[in-house]
């Protein structure tokens, strides 16, 4: 379930390109108590990033943009069945790296209000050769992400 805001999940005060992903916490995302695994956040965030790249026409982005740094702060649990909104923003594009910030929100659930469950940032680098060395972002990618 990708695309625009819903359930009060409006994207505000963002400066750079934004990707949004809506989903639900599934059983596979949880421990036996029905609370999400920390690794689910990475999947939710990557889905929001994929939505951004699809929207910008960068369909070959992921094989060429590995993560080199990832930082997350976990603030609140997400529960089995709860709707989730992940928002990713491109905050910096350098010569060969990009920095993204993200937030993962648990929507209102079982009488609990909408709450930010996690936030953080990560860095990707562009690799264009089989030796996996960083290289400059293609001009067409930069244009797609900055206009």
Automatic annotation (TrEMBL):
Coiled coil: none annotated. Keywords: Hydrolase. The keyword Acetylation does not apply. InterPro entries: HotDog_dom_sf, Thioestr_dom. It comes from the Bacteria. It holds the Pfam family 4HBT. One of its GO terms (molecular function) is hydrolase activity. Residues 34-108 form the Thioesterase domain. This is Acyl-CoA thioester hydrolase.
């Amino acid at each position: 379930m990708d695309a625009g805001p819903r359930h009060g999940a409006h994207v505000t005060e963002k400066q750079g390109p934004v990707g949004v992903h809506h989903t639900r916490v599934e059983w596979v995302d949880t421990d036996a108590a029905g609370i999400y695994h920390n690794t689910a956040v990475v999947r939710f965030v990557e889905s929001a990033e994929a939505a951004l790249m699809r929207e910008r026409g960068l369909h070959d982005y992921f094989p060429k943009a590995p993560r080199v740094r990832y930082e997350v702060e976990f603030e609140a649990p997400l529960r089995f069945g709860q709707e989730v909104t992940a928002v990713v923003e491109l905050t910096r594009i350098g010569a060969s790296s990009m920095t993204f910030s993200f937030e993962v929100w648990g929507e209102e659930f079982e009488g609990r209000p909408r709450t930010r469950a996690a936030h953080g940032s990560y860095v990707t680098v562009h690799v264009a050769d089989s030796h996996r060395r960083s290289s400059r972002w293609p001009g067409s990618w930069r244009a797609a992400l900055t206009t």
